[in-house]
Design goal:
- This protein is mainly α and about 170 residues long.
- It is built from five helices and three strands; from the N terminus they run βββααααα.
- It is elongated and about 85 Å long.
Length: about 170
């Protein structure tokens, strides 16, 4: 009796060698049943939501907290537009506006209102990223604030170097 030995081919079917197959020849045997299974990794417990940000005023106003750069940026944006508007309207440069003292009360009022309006949502647990839209998002606000801060420095530097306001009427 001849021994039959099956070898598995790369196509997945079993092929008998021609020399040892005897009367069967080199015919294919049905492929062995191959089973495929998919492994999916899941946690046993339901995922917990991310922790809410701290609602402490000291955490919000910390050096790396969410409030300082955002509040300074908002104030810089308002200050830059206001400085340009007053400069265009009256011809006073930024340094003469600061030196006259007439706008100090409005400056203090604006700082207080914008600071409180910026802190209240943070203290309620909201984040600027959560309220962001498609166009006006939190990163755009930060970058606009940074550019406004640089703009105020540029207005002051221009007036110091040239001795004249940025907008010459």
């Amino acid at each position: 009796m001849a021994t039959v030995m099956a070898m598995s081919s790369f196509a997945g079917g079993a092929v008998l060698p021609a020399a040892s197959a005897g009367r069967l020849g080199a015919r294919s045997l049905p492929a062995l049943a191959r089973r495929a299974f998919v492994v999916r990794a899941q946690t046993e417990e339901p995922s917990t939501p991310p922790p809410k940000p701290s609602t402490s005023i000291w955490d919000a106003l910390a050096f790396s907290g969410p409030a300082p750069e955002r509040i300074n940026g908002r104030l810089a944006m308002v200050g830059f537009v206001t400085a340009l508007a007053v400069e265009a309207g009256r011809g006073d440069g930024l340094l003469s506006q600061l030196g006259s003292g007439t706008g100090q009360a409005w400056f203090a009022y604006t700082v207080a209102v914008l600071s409180v309006a910026s802190l209240v949502p943070l203290l309620q647990g909201e984040s600027a990223e959560g309220r962001a839209g498609a166009i006006m998002n939190a990163d755009a606000e930060l970058w606009n604030g940074r550019f406004a801060m640089l703009g105020l420095v540029a207005l002051a530097a221009t007036e110091i170097l040239t001795g004249a306001p940025f907008i010459n009427i």
